[in-house]
Write a structure and sequence with these properties.
This protein is α+β, with helices and mostly antiparallel strands. It contains 13 helices and 17 strands. Strand 5 and strand 6 form a beta hairpin. Helix 1 runs antiparallel to helix 2, helix 2 packs antiparallel against helix 3 and helix 4 packs antiparallel against helix 5.
Length: 500
């Protein structure tokens, strides 16, 4: 399904929800082939309304897999677990939602298309409720006291009522996202779905046929002598740095640093990484696009003409299916591994083993990776390090925080013997020995919408990778690499690397 078709179906389904036809809306959402994290979130919410808790859980799982930083998805999956009586799992998801707030008192999702504010105090409110169901009344009271300190609006009086219930050891109702609140597609894109008739309706001005109706005669327009027979080549080809490429296939982004393009678009490749992803500029926006979706555009400033003097620069339609989405290897975009000189070299795509095992890893957040069962220690740790975008030697794996570490001397048969139903659970921590890196501590929060910038928050630890100039550094934080203002950080003690 093309990006345009996905937008059209998404907008149609949201309109059906607004009109109250939830069943048809759910069917329209499910018919979308390439579901992003927001669409999967919407599907989970509709299943939740229908009390189909198993389907809702799967939809929210899909949403979280595609965007591990979507706090509202963790919050809604916590509601799903709560309604299913799985209070420990519900508490874990509410706790993850609270961590995704990164110390902020709320997240306003309106810029992303969801008219809802997720308050930290309301997340704590639900955490307290799960403690109450587990009989942990003291912990429930501590959560609600913290919620009162984080409350930003007077209308959130249900927290006071919840605290009164806890003091009497009584249960209360959870905070839920309203039923009609869903992610809506970008309205700027939706507005472009309908074709516009810029010429209007044809009108007869003068005719040699007597029966034709007409209203007058159009005056002759002055003609330019020696007018060019073909339009000039776009000036943007001269002004922009980079190599012009034509888009062969539609590409739907799954993360914020990727760029949506459709066949026929002309993009300018700034650099190409070894993982087959290209950094491009299109319509004054910069982002990542698979390089095998592009074809170098051979254009000159003097357009070729056919014998009749008509310029023929219309690209032929694609004659094959789009290639598979290349695997993201963000570490390859580090300065020492970048391929900048020429973007035309081909990069291979790694192949996964057929007999795969899902490895669940507990870090500062929980994530999963697929590894071939029976793989070596080097393969396992490289997969996890690549997911975290950290050096292999900087992480340590173990069966649990208390058990001994897994390393190259560990008998891997013992590790894979822990697999149950195709799943393996491990814990991951950062090693203290990171002397080869300079560590910085964030003294101010820095957020930016530019994909090349590094977003972090006050108190975060950043690995310094290089200095762009006196005012801007390049670093790595929480698995992300980018540039940031030097004035926002200071040198940190080495032991602070454990706090990431």
């Amino acid at each position: 399904m093309s990006f345009v078709d996905t937008l059209r179906q998404w907008d149609k389904a949201v309109a059906l929800v607004t009109s109250g036809d939830l069943a048809t809306a759910l069917k329209v959402f499910l018919d979308i082939q390439d579901k992003n994290s927001k669409i999967s979130f919407n599907i989970g919410c509709l299943h939740l309304i229908n009390n189909d808790l198993a389907a809702a859980e799967k939809a929210f799982d899909c949403s979280i897999r595609k965007d591990e930083h979507l706090a509202i998805a963790f919050f809604q999956r916590g509601i799903t677990f709560y309604k299913n009586g799985r209070f420990e799992e519900s508490f874990a998801d509410f706790q993850l939602a609270f961590k995704k707030l990164r110390g902020n008192q709320l997240i306003d999702y309106k810029p992303l298309g969801l008219r809802y504010k997720l308050f930290a105090c309301e997340v704590l409110h639900n955490m307290a409720l799960t403690h109450a169901h587990l009989g942990q009344w003291e912990k429930a009271q501590e959560n609600l006291v913290s919620a009162l300190n984080l409350r930003t609006e007077a209308k959130l009086i249900h927290i006071d009522k919840a605290l009164e219930c806890i003091l009497k050891q009584k249960l209360f109702q959870p905070v839920e996202v309203p039923k009609d609140v869903l992610f809506k597609p970008n309205q700027n894109y939706v507005a472009e779905l309908e074709k516009k008739d810029y010429l209007g309706k044809a009108k007869v001005v003068s005719s040699i046929v007597f029966e034709d109706e007409f209203s007058g005669f159009a005056p002759l327009q002055p003609q330019l002598e020696d007018a060019p027979v073909a339009p000039k080549a776009p000036e943007v080809l001269r002004a922009l740095e980079g190599v012009a490429h034509t888009v062969l296939f539609e590409f739907v982004p799954e993360t914020s640093d990727e760029l949506a393009v459709v066949p026929g678009n002309v993009v300018f490749v700034l650099q190409k990484g070894t993982d087959n992803w290209a950094s491009v500029i299109f319509n004054e926006r910069r982002g990542l696009v698979p390089y095998n979706y592009l074809e170098r555009l051979e254009r000159t400033l003097s357009p070729k003409q056919d014998p009749n003097g008509i310029e023929d620069q219309i690209p032929a339609p694609p004659r094959r299916e789009p290639p598979s989405r290349p695997k993201r290897e963000p570490a390859s975009w580090a300065p020492e591994n970048q391929t900048i000189d020429h973007p035309d070299s081909e990069a291979g795509v790694s192949q996964e083993d057929d007999d795969e095992c899902t490895v669940k890893v507990h870090f500062t957040y929980t994530f999963t990776v697929s590894v071939g069962r029976g793989a070596s220690y080097a393969t396992l740790v490289e997969k996890i390090a690549s997911k975290l975008q950290l050096p292999v030697k900087s992480i340590t794996l173990s069966y649990s925080p208390q058990k001994r570490a897994i390393n190259q001397d560990t008998l891997m048969e013992d590790v894979w013997s822990q697999v149950k139903d195709g799943h393996l659970t491990l814990w991951c921590t950062l090693q203290e020995d990171m002397n080869e890196h300079t560590l910085l501590a964030a003294v101010h929060s820095f957020e930016s919408s530019n994909p090349e910038d590094l977003t972090f928050y006050k108190g975060d630890t950043i690995i310094l990778l290089g200095k762009v100039n006196e005012d801007w550094f390049e670093g790595q934080c929480k698995g992300k690499i980018g540039i940031f203002p030097a004035a926002f950080v200071k040198e940190a003690p080495l032991k602070s690397s454990q706090d990431e």
